[in-house]
Specification:
196 residues; mainly alpha; Rossmann fold; 6 helices; 8% strand
Length: 196
């Protein structure tokens, strides 16, 4: 806990200590008044929680500070110590939650950035591997065609191999059988009866 007797002294303490979670100021203080102190704190430490203690809740300075968004809480006099401590604890707790939340958001942002970079690298690797696979597939297809040609013709003489001859013979026999079956269907007695 840091204590200051004037607004300027309080401002110096806030500037020197980045982890100040909450500033509690009186509305009317010597030198720098509470609303102006809290407005400056809002500029240099926007996440710091700010509260004012006042016996003049209808003051124009207080209303202006509230409207400008420089205050998170107003404590009216007379106040009880227990209530004041509870408000300060709540403001400090809110500051810590917000700070931790911002830290987690930054960590998440960095993790997402890292994941995006990793994803980009993986996509590039996959694209490269895909290209390599396509090239290898084309080479295999060419080699397969060459092998098929080699199995059909003798490399030395260029004549058809025994295997090629056997395959061609099977194809021709199957074609001849289909042609015979088709002629038999056309000349069957049912087709002659239907012609009459």
């Amino acid at each position: 806990m840091l204590l200051a007797s004037t607004g300027l002294e309080a401002l110096e303490l806030v500037q020197a200590n980045a982890e100040v979670a909450c500033v509690l100021a009186d509305l009317r203080m010597p030198g720098l008044g509470g609303p102006e102190l809290l407005a400056r704190v809002a500029q240099i430490r926007p996440h710091c929680r700010r509260a004012v203690v006042t016996g003049f809740p209808e003051s124009d300075d207080l209303i202006a500070a509230i409207n400008a968004g420089h205050l998170h809480y107003v404590i009216t006099k007379p106040w009880k110590l227990q209530d004041l401590l509870q408000v300060v604890d709540q403001l400090v707790h809110t500051f810590r939650l917000e700070r931790d939340n911002n830290r987690l958001i930054n960590e998440l942002r960095l993790a997402n950035h890292s994941l995006r970079e990793h994803e980009t690298q993986l996509e590039a690797q996959l694209e490269s591997r895909g290209h390599e696979i396509n090239v290898a597939t084309e080479q295999l297809a060419q080699m397969s065609n060459q092998l098929d040609a080699l199995t059909l013709r003798d490399a030395l003489t260029g004549l058809y191999t025994h295997r090629a001859f056997q395959e061609r013979l099977r194809e021709e026999i199957a074609r001849a059988l289909r042609a015979m079956a088709s002629r038999c269907r056309c000349s069957s007695p049912t087709s002659t009866a239907s012609r009459r």
